[in-house]
Amino acid sequence: MVRTAAEAREERIDEILSQFFPASDPPSWWVGEPARPSGRVDVMFRDRREAGRVLAARLDFLRTEDPVVVGLPRGGVPVAAEVARELGAPLDVLVVRKLGCPWQPELGMGAVGEGGIIVLNEDLVARFGLSRDDVETVARAERQELERRVRRYRGDRAATSLEGRTVIVVDDGIATGFTVRAAVAIARRRGARRVVLATPVAPSRTVEELARVADDVVTMEEPEEFLAIGQFYEDFTQTSDEEVAAYLAGSMLPLVEAVGTADPPDPVEIDLSEVRLAGDLTLPADPVGVIVFAHGSGSSRLSPRNRFVARALNEGRLATLLFDLLTTAEEIDRANVFDIELLAGRLVEATRWLQTRRDVRGLPIGYFGASTGAAAALWAAANLGAAIAAVVSRGGRPDLARETLHQVRAPTLLIVGGRDEAVLALNRQAQAALQCANALEVVPGATHLFEEPGALDRVAQLARNWFVRFLRGAIREAG
């Protein structure tokens, strides 16, 4: 009986697959057939977010390593978002696209990743007799889709640096494991010091294989009978590109547990060496830290934008102190508004006053500065050293503190509107001078005052994430 070329190719494919799965027939999820029902209920998780919360508890041992959490789009991102929230870690994606064999697209011969990285299963490529042209033809199409997804997910935000970091690669489940093997390789090529692969569920045989390529593999369940990832979820609705982008932008990321409305602000008077300044101190229940606001350009503790951000911080169990850096008489002289050394000196004195109060004593302290107040916050942070746990600047002028930027040790987040081009350029220059942990977040479409719909919400979310992450870390170090 004469075989056709197609039959010969199928026989060759079966021969190769049998070498990859010597103990049994190739599983249905490998060759692209619909998964067959197992005849029993395998649900372990209500949805991806619940799976992420459970997985985060297993990953708590990495909290002290200041990790970066990267989710594999699309389904891995909701899981990764919960892990990042619980660990107080930054969230990003690691976009990987599988390269399917030309004659059997479901059979992965490799993967492409961001930055032009390509990882090949050289053994499989050789066995199929695939040429470099064959590989490049498939890779070219997948790179186009990869680039589209990167633009859709991150917008104009830069990828989080993995250089020298512990990187937790998260997916919602692992079947064959080839894509995540490629993701681990890509994380290493981007400079990761340690790569931990984390997933709620994966077959035990795959976990054994992955342990050879990752530094650690963390799972919740390793069932031997494994047909499809979805069998272990009650709700396995497909995650959309829009949802991935929203998680990365923070609008779908639960930041910290809400505590409801904080008590009304307590009016205070801050006695400094030369003047007495009015302020408002707000204490939520069981605060994890206190944030001191440094207003800029002559604005006061009544600034509606800063009060909006303060309320968001209060909901994250952060106490807030808003106070006037200048007296009414001093504000008349506009030169005082740009006297960064004067403003920073007032902020240092107010911080020392705050440290004497019994109701906040011992809590880690952070600074939130706006406009010229951001320069004052950085100047004061340089002066106080380890006493300040974190700094956030909103539309700030950190360049005005250029003399002291290299002395700042507090992790610093610079937030700038995408349409505030002049200030954005100044922030980039200032960031280059910082020698502490730092990040620059650009809010797309926002102008200097963040008046656009949703812009100030984004500022509040970014600030709350940053403060909770680093102030909680300060509590652990003190303990």
Residue windows where pLDDT falls under 50 for at least 5 positions: 16-41, 251-261
Measure the end-to-end span: 78 Å
Individual helix count: 15
Strand order of the largest sheet: 9-10-12-11-13-14-15-16
Percent in strands: 15-25%
Estimate the helix proportion, in percent. Answer: 25-40%
Question: Major beta sheet, specifics?
Answer: 8 strands, mixed
Q: Count the E strands.
A: 16
Averaged pLDDT, please? 81
Query: How large, in whole angstroms, is the Cα Rg?
Result: 26 Å
Class of secondary structure makeup:
alpha/beta
Shape: elongated
What does the model show?
This protein has an 8-stranded mixed beta sheet with strand order 9-10-12-11-13-14-15-16, with helices on both faces. A 5-stranded parallel beta sheet has the order 2-1-6-7-8, sandwiched between helices. It has a 3-stranded antiparallel beta sheet with strand order 3-4-5, with helices on both faces. It is built from 15 helices and 16 strands. Helix 6 packs across helix 9 (241-249). It has helices at residues 5-20, 28-31, 48-58, 76-87, 122-128, 132-154, 178-189, 204-210, 241-249, 304-315, 328-331, 340-355, 372-384, 421-433, 455-478; strands at residues 68-71, 91-93, 96-101, 104-113, 117-120, 166-170, 194-201, 216-221, 266-271, 276-282, 289-294, 318-323, 365-370, 388-394, 412-417, 438-443. The longest helix has 24 residues, at 455-478. It has 479 residues and is α/β, with parallel strands linked by helices. 38% of the residues lie in helices and 20% in strands.
